[in-house]
Amino acid sequence: MILWGLLGSLAAGSMTAVGALPVAFGRSVSPQARDTMLGFAAGVMLSASFFSLILPGLERGAAVYGGVVASALLAGAGIAAGAAMVAALNRWLPHEHFITGPEGADPGALPRIWLFVIAITIHNFPEGMAVGVGFGSGDIGHGLSLAIGIGLQNAPEGLAVAVALRGQGYSAARAVWIATLTGLVEPVGGVIGAAAVTVSAYALPFGLTFAAGAMLYIISHEIIPETHRHGHQDRATTGLIAGLILMLVLDVTLG
Q1: Is residue 231 situated within a structural domain?
Q2: pLDDT of 5-46, one tens digit each?
Q3: What are the backbone angles phi and psi of residue 231, rounded to the nearest 5°?
Q4: What pLDDT is attached to residue 255?
Q5: What is the pTM of this model?
Q6: Which residues cross the membrane (predicted)?
Q7: Is 25 part of any domain?
Q8: How many CB atoms are closer than 10 A to CB 151?
Q9: Which structural domain range is residue 247 located in?
């Protein structure tokens, strides 16, 4: 299951490079299309958080701990802990977003490009962890649906990162290369997530909801505000609904 978690999260992370490829050929994307695609990514993550992580976590928790109340309390603790982890990384790690600017600790002499990379890494790590936890549950179909869903939403994110880097003055080749590297943190999260939940059946319910909480924080704190920043709320919401439905179908048919 750890190997499946590694391979699944690696495949999902590699879609970041696929999404960035148009920039290598001089293609760009309109702000409206960008916000629609990021809305789609948010919809996939939102659907995956509930249908692929929280609901299975509640079911496994009820089976392991012998009651729905204990399962619900554990799920709530897992969600809160996952969100708190990402919030702490946001606070402690120096990083910079393309639009909102610098956040976190004092970066000192750290080059600006590394601040961008750290910001994207904070975003991508929980996604890889979610894929790893999905495979770590022992259900290959469940993990596969998460890997496909996260991979699909990584493509527009990769394009958005590459376009933003081009806007900062980086060459097309370097923008694509950096976007590709940011996706490679996902296999790290995948291995950690799969290993953590395969240790014990008692850890699985918490691991599933922990991964969900981390992604929910990113959706609310990063993606949705970004898609609404330029007045394209309608397009972004349409993309979100489309992504949510697609991930729901993937989870039902594969998981």
Answers
A1: yes
A2: 899 999 999 998 898 888 888 777 788 888 898 899 899 999
A3: 80, 20
A4: 63
A5: 0.84
A6: 36-55, 62-89, 109-125, 175-196, 202-224, 236-254
A7: no
A8: 24
A9: 2-20+31-254
